[in-house]
Hints:
It is built from 10 helices and 14 strands. It has about 300 residues and is of the alpha/beta class.
Amino acid sequence: MKVAVLGTGFGAYHVELYAKRNEVEEIIVWGRKEEKLRELKDKFHVVTTGDMEAIWNDRTIDLVDICLPNHLHKETALKALRAGKHVFIETPVAESLEDAEAILKTAEQYGRRVFVDLFLRFEYPYEYLYQLVKAGKAGAVKELQIKRETPPWWGNLDSGHIGINLMMHDMDFVTRLLGEPDHIFASSIDVREQQSVVAAALSYKGCSALVRGVSAMPQTYPFSVGYEAVLEHGTVRYYEDGYADGTTHTKLELFCEDKKEEIPLPQVNCYEAAIGHVLQCIKENQASCLDIREAICTLRTVLRMNQMLEK
């Protein structure tokens, strides 16, 4: 399989992951920075180009991986699909529902597939709860709280951007587990420039979810994620605190009436797992949990939250 990666920012990490895959025979990387392209070429023995047209015209490319700024996702995805390539897009799939649906429509028109990097679906603690609920082992979810808190490490995450750029994956976890909500109530505070606190309450018949995103933590605070799920017959609690020095504290626990159990956390690279999944789905023509339709469902929910914040 031949893969093209667009972008040398986070795209450089995607290149590293593709380079580990036996089924990937060749990687071509597009970028604007010649120095970065040269580094990738020397390190991973990839082909590099500054001419995007060369990628569209190369009929041997099977998959185009888009790691570009959000506003370029639609344009490059449409060009790739029209050129007969499958597409893998970093989140968000697009900045508007109209753009995302245009990508889906074009994929259907040209008989190609679009995958979106909803990598949290391959993070073990989240997959653990999903499978627990799916199997009905602890009953239905009655209440779910999920959070993502960070110091100002990731650019502009004010109340107008934090939903798309930080809370997207947590919202995806909720919609995958519970579906799209009946109602959304949201509030926000811009603490400082590009730093905010947003809380969204999602209402369902018989249960509720609270999604919290914070980008205003001090520099000494860890990048902190986690959830607490109250089920009919138990509670699951997970947290992970990652500090700037590389130190990590994490735990996943199941509480039942008669026991408390700490769940072992296997070391899984969720980004590597997502890419492996995409390659397998293309090769075997398998259904995918990263299908663009799943991402559109999540995007629609985030945009509904943003509409509430604007009011």
